[in-house]
């Protein structure tokens, strides 16, 4: 059976957990948009990920509950879903040396991961922060934040990086119908 292991914040909160669900349960959730994208890892990457995702302890090793949808890519205060995924991938690729989020992030930088820079103005940030518990910007370096440059981990930046590293086949998109 196919399973999805993913990080998800509880609705209306800034707290997240890691879940393992069947495909039906995963896609029947309250999705923002019914669109899926996947990229099949190389056999070596699959083997390494299987070793991590097969162990609840290793799956949760780098998980941090405080959640912000736009957490700073290189920060430690919050962790969003895509961030957990690539930090866990880093731990899977280097299990003997990566034990902390700092180590995973250093490895990601070394391997050429580049986060997405979102351009979000101060009033937009304020509105988002006031209106949504799961959006925070206080972990971003002030210099970048005041220049309206929010560096975060997005699906697009992860898929681009995985293609550059040649650790996956080309992404496949199942569009909305």
How are the SSEs placed, and which strands pair?
Elements (H helix, E strand, L loop, with lengths): L2 E7 L6 E7 H5 L8 E3 L4 H11 L2 H5 L20 H13 L7 H10 L5 E4 L2 H10 L10 H5 L2 E4 L2 H11 L6 E3 L3
Antiparallel strand pairs: 1-2, 3-6, 4-5
Q: Describe the main β-sheet briefly.
A: 2 strands, antiparallel
Spatial order of the strands forming the largest sheet: 1-2
Structural class: alpha+beta
Strand content: 15-25%
Number of distinct helices: 8
Shape from CA axes? globular
Looking at how many chains there are and whether they match, the oligomeric state comes to: single chain
Share of residues in helices: 25-40%
Mean model confidence by pLDDT: 94
For the termini, the CA-CA separation is 25 Å
> Which regions have little confidence, pLDDT < 50, spanning 5+ residues?
none
Total DSSP E strands? 6
Task: State Rg.
Answer: 16 Å
Series of H and E elements: EEHEHHHHEHHEHE
Summary keywords:
40% helix, two-stranded antiparallel ribbon, 177 residues, 8 helices, alpha+beta
Task: Describe this entry's structure for a reader.
The protein is of the alpha+beta class. The chain is 40% helix and 16% strand. It has helices spanning 23-27, 43-53, 56-60, 81-93, 101-110, 122-131, 142-146, 155-165, and strands spanning 3-9, 16-22, 36-38, 116-119, 149-152, 172-174. A hairpin with a 6-residue loop joins strand 1 (3-9) and strand 2. Helix 4 packs across helix 5 (101-110). The two termini are 25 Å apart.
């Amino acid at each position: 059976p196919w399973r999805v292991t993913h990080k998800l914040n509880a609705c209306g909160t800034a707290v997240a957990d890691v879940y393992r669900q069947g495909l039906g349960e995963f896609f029947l959730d309250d999705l923002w948009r019914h669109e899926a994208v996947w990229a099949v890892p190389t056999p070596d990457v699959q083997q390494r990920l299987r070793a991590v995702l097969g162990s609840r302890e290793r799956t949760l090793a780098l998980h941090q509950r405080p959640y912000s949808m736009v957490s700073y890519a290189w920060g430690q205060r919050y962790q969003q879903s895509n961030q957990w995924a690539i930090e866990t991938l880093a731990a899977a690729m280097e299990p003997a040396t990566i034990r902390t989020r700092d180590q995973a992030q250093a490895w990601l930088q070394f391997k050429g991961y580049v986060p997405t820079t979102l351009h979000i103005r101060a009033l937009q940030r304020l509105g988002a922060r006031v209106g949504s518990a799961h959006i925070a910007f206080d972990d971003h370096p002030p210099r970048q934040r005041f220049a309206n440059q929010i560096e975060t981990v997005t699906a697009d930046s992860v898929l681009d990086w995985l293609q550059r590293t040649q650790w996956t086949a080309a992404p496949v998109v199942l569009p909305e119908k």
